[in-house]
Amino acid sequence: MSTQPPLDLWFRPIRALVVATQVSGVLGSAGLVAAVVARKPLNMMAVVVLLLPALVAWMVTRKAIHLTDEGMETVTLFGKRLIIWADFQRIDQSRKSFVFIT
Q: Which of 12, 34, 37, 46 shows the smallest number of beta carbons within 10 Å?
């Protein structure tokens, strides 16, 4: 009789998205520092506006889903949440995605 190994799957954003977010954040931060040093308030506001999408993208790339024997754990920038398998009503699968209904 064979026993199944424990379930331990991680789903994270693709690496290219994470790297692109990091690069845009570094370039935006450098632009902000340059605007502060040059004392150009209009440039500072423009860089801050350009950094907002990078901030949102960074928050998205920090999200991960961890499937374990106990349930599904979502990990975000603000914390973790575990949903046990008994709380799921249905799992729908399409060609490219899963939908978990609780």
A: 37
pLDDT in tens, 2-35: 677 788 888 888 888 888 888 888 888 888 888 8
Each residue's pLDDT tens digit, 29-75: 888 888 888 888 888 888 888 788 878 877 888 889 999 999 999 98
Cα 46 → chain centroid: 25
DSSP string, 24-78: HHHHHHHHHHHHHHHT-HHHHHHHHHHHHHHHHHHHHHT-EEEEESSEEEEEETT
d(Cα 22, Cα 92) in Å, to the nearest integer? 33
C-alpha neighbours within 13 Å on the C-beta side of residue 60: 14
CA neighbor of 15 nearest in space, from 25, 7, 23: 23
pTM here is 0.64
